[in-house]
Amino acid sequence: MSIVNNTINLDMITKKTFDRGFNVHVDFSIRLSKTKHYQRVFAHTMDTCGVVSTIKRNIFKAWFQSMWDRSNFVHRCPVTKSHYFLRNWTVDPQLVPQYLSAGDYRVTCHFFYGKLKSKQEEFERHVEFLATNYTFNTKYFKNFSVSIANKTLNMDMELARPIQRGFKAHVDYQLRVANAKNFQTIFSHHFDVCAIVSNVKDGLLKSWFKSMLEYSNFMHNCPVEVGYYYLHNWKLGSTMTHQFLYPGEYRGQLHLFYGKYKTKTEDRVITLIIDSILYN
């Protein structure tokens, strides 16, 4: 394998046929500003043949498909013994997840049969909330407060006006590496709050909201009428964290607003910061 003119070139002669059960574990690491070392931010393990042959399109399938014009890779398993090559391949900017922040990245791939050895698989993941900070717009709330007690999240608020469609959120996920003072954004997400609340399709954010319903009097749809709302003793369960995230100190910055983010039309409603630790 070599890199020439910012393109990847690969030549390989396989000695055996690759079939189902041929797995790959991918580690994505970032080098944060003013640090020398890379820090893992997330990882993913998958069946290589499953990615090659699946019809469903995801980021890994999209990368593989973009290699077809630059290689003699086969499109299905088994992959028979032969010489295979990849010439002058680059990652199309459209195939880079939009939530990733700009920076220096390292991708490490481990190809293997069997089960990847990892002590982390023996433990249950959980999140502990540490601290919080917030500001709110009195045009929308008579009162608003967030606190952490016994490592659970508590929120009390009294709406001064209804929450209507067009109410949006921007979330920054940040990581603080060992011995560093500051957090650095690793990825961001932008979404319509009312769409998440009313959407039938499950996703990570939807699972968080559904979990909150057990500890709150939140409404299930928009508009959210004027009144008092609460969230008491809520915590993130082991199944409600990104499985690719590594243990460490995280900070979530949530900006709720109307209009267009970071423009003159933005009408900021709430800014909420939550610090937490992810354990395995």
Automatic annotation (TrEMBL):
UniProt cross-references to InterPro entries, sorted A to Z: DUF1091, GM2-AP_sf
Annotated Pfam families: DUF1091
Gene3D superfamilies given in the database record: Ganglioside GM2 activator
Keywords: Signal
Organism superkingdom: Eukaryota
Protein name according to UniProt: Uncharacterized protein
Organism: Drosophila virilis
Gene symbol of the encoding locus: Dvir\GJ11647
